[in-house]
Amino acid sequence: MTEEFELDTGDLERRMEGAMANLRTEFASLRTGRASSSMLEPVMVDAYGSPTPINQVGTVNVPEPRMVTVNVWDKSLVGKVEKAIRESGLGINPQTNGTIIMLPIPELNEERRRELGKVAGQYAEHARVSIRNVRKDGMDQIKKAKADGMSEDDQKFWETEVQELTDRMVAAVDNALETKQSEIMQV
Question: Which residues are in the Ribosome recycling factor domain (predicted)?
């Protein structure tokens, strides 16, 4: 028999927390009726031949509660930034004034709130899939150790540990989704 198998549950948990952090970032990008510079974080601009985050091609500001502005540093990128915002699915119609792109944030109507709720659900499902992929990786490590001579009791113990961690993280995703959807639907 081989030496005692020790699964690095800390590594699995860290990777699952990474999926949660990514989900929080995506949720921050969903607007809830007020302007926020974080809503532009997922927008990528095709600048100089590669996808670039919008905050690396201009300064993002929130001068008033219903307005976001992007002051583009390179005049030749203004059209590309405007196009990236228009195609981002944020539902915002950019207005250009020289190198400054203004993004007026309209009131959310009921239909748009439902759409944003669905988008939040898609983000949550991506996070759940990521967490399940980490779970699968952990289970594969356990199966390999079982093939190398781990006892059945140890196998059951580690599988239970990984499953409990997965269940806890999926519950956290579900709670975050519920909170975000109620925030979106709040008038």
Answer: 23-185
